[in-house]
Amino acid sequence: MSTQITEPTTVTALLDLRAAESGDQPFLLFGGQSTSYAEMARRTTALANALAELGMGEGDRIAIMSANRPEFLDAWFASARLGAIEIPVNTALRGRFLSYLLADSGARFLAVEAELLDHVDAVLDQLPALETIIVIGEGSLPGRRCVALADLVAAGSPAPIEMQVDVTQTAVIGYTSGTTGPSKGLTLSHRAA
What's the pLDDT score for residue 4? Predict the structure, then answer.
């Protein structure tokens, strides 16, 4: 007898299911603002389509350097829709610690709060693989393609993404604190995420 999976197997499939079942219900409460399941699904699909237009695809790596805020979730869900790998970056990292993590992770994309751009700029010359900086807020850095996350969400198509993400592939690389040596990346699959 075979077992049929009836529950979604990825976090984005779960979000889409909840949006279809109870779209007006709150998904996120932050800073006195409520975001419904339907709005979160729409926003992250639009962002994913815009990121795909920038060249992001399955297996690409996106570092996200942001405090806990809705835009962090936007970037995470959107990249997961494309089968990309998310690397959360501690916002306190500076200098060689920041450049090590971004270089070691192989991130082609970086979503970063505008207030942290100076720290990225200080190590940018050590990050030749970093192609696109997605700014949470307003700002840019010379020599790299910089786009505002809000502009990507506004410009992205809300059309569903027509791809099947392999749930056994890596979804997240989380770096250790590095107390006994350089930080090490630990992986989590789409199914586990």
Answer: 43
